[in-house]
Task: structure prediction
Amino acid sequence: MKISKEEVLHVANLARLEIDDADVERFAGQIGTILDYVDTLKQVDTAGVAATSHAITLTNAFREDEETGHLDPQTALANAPEKDEGAFVVPKVI
Result:
């Protein structure tokens, strides 16, 4: 499916994106390729296939939330790149 430059610019405007002319050409081609692939997928017979939310069966891999002991300061700081007086030293952000 071919998408026009005007359609690319319209979508970019809706998304409040500024794109230059070279990118408009490139995105038109890429979006066209994606839409062609979607058209290909539409041809797949999915009759009788149950709707799913995932391609594979997933189970919760989280552990039970159980209270445990805390790390002592030496263990907590063992791999710290920089430490001072029992605390992590991090770069100043302000």
Q: What stands out?
A: The radius of gyration is 26 Å. The helical segments are 5-14, 21-42, 73-76. The beta strands are 83-84, 87-88. The chain is about 40% helix and 5% strand.
